[in-house]
């Protein structure tokens, strides 16, 4: 399979597929003023939509890196994450505290997944 880029702009592509692997750009909340629960829910909904648009889904996640504005939000974010990840299909994952690109952002995620076959 040739390398494919989706929704490509000057700075980045929203998704890149190479062989059977999907790489998503960082996804953030739809509403940047929501609390951590709301931001995590809409961020993961964006991941779902983007994965589906390229032929994958959350059941095919390989890895995820989560960036939190403050690790004090870790448990609340994990409640949403744990309900979202299909049982028995948790990806390799890292979660780090980071300075966000916009001050109202509380969480961002970068995902790698396999194509659904």
CATH class: Alpha Beta
Could you say how many structural domains there are in total?
A: 1
Supply the CATH superfamily name: RutC-like
Give the helix/strand class.
alpha+beta
Largest sheet: 7 strands, mixed
For the record, give the distance between the C-alpha atoms at the N and C termini, rounded to a whole number: 13 Å
Specify the CATH architecture. Answer: 2-Layer Sandwich
Helix residue percentage: 10-25%
How many strand elements? 7
* Radius of gyration, in angstroms, nearest whole number: 14 Å
Organism: Halomonas beimenensis
Family: Belongs to the RutC family.
Protein name: RidA/YER057c/UK114 superfamily, group 2, YoaB-like protein
Structural description of this entry:
Belongs to the RutC family. Pfam families: Ribonuc_L-PSP (PF01042). It comes from Halomonas beimenensis. InterPro entries: RidA_CS, RutC-like_sf, YjgF/YER057c/UK114, YoaB-like. This is RidA/YER057c/UK114 superfamily, group 2, YoaB-like protein. There is one protein chain. The chain has one domain: 60s Ribosomal Protein L30, Chain: A (2-Layer Sandwich), CATH 3.30.1330. It has 117 residues and is α+β, with helices and mostly antiparallel strands. Strand 2 (13-18) and strand 3 form a beta hairpin. Helix 1 (36-53) runs parallel beside helix 2 (74-84). Helices cover 25% and strands 33% of the residues. It has helices at residues 36-53, 74-84, and strands spanning 4-8, 13-18, 21-24, 27-28, 61-68, 92-97, 107-114. Strands 1, 2, 3, 4, 5, 6 and 7 form a seven-stranded mixed sheet that branches. The mean pLDDT is 96.
């Amino acid at each position: 399979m040739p390398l494919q880029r989706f929704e490509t702009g000057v700075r980045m592509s929203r998704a890149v597929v190479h062989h059977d692997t999907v790489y998503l750009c960082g996804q953030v909340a739809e509403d940047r003023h929501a609390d951590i629960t709301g931001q995590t829910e809409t961020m993961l909904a964006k991941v779902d939509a983007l994965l589906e648009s390229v032929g994958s889904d959350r059941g095919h996640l390989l890895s995820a890196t989560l960036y939190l504005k403050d690790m004090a939000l870790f448990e609340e974010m994990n409640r949403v994450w744990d309900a979202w990840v299909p049982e028995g299909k948790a990806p390799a994952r890292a979660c780090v505290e980071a300075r966000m690109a916009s001050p109202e952002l509380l969480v961002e995620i970068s995902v790698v997944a396999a194509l659904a076959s």
